[in-house]
Amino acid sequence: MMMDQNTRMTDKEKMADLLSCEKFLAGNYNTYCMEAATTSVRSCLCTILTDVHSMQEGVFEEMNSRGWYPLETAEETKVQAEKQKFAQTVSA
Hints:
The chain is mostly helical. It has one domain (11-91). It has 3 helices and no strands. Helix 1 runs antiparallel to helix 2 (39-65). The longest helix is centred in the middle third of the chain and has 27 residues, at 39-65. It is flat, with a radius of gyration of 19 Å.
């Protein structure tokens, strides 16, 4: 998004940008963890990944509490149908 000097991001836009950054970092650190050459490096990277997940959860929860990232509650029948579909895929 291009902005001129007089354009400011809203709090919602800032939080959405932060959430996107955290998701991007989590994806990268996950790859780094899997490709680490030593146990000590892997352990360090996995600790960072856990921290990133915690930060992402905090940003998400704040956005959700403000109504900026609402969740739709799934009907139990839909949940059961998806579970059944997944179980069939796994057993195939």
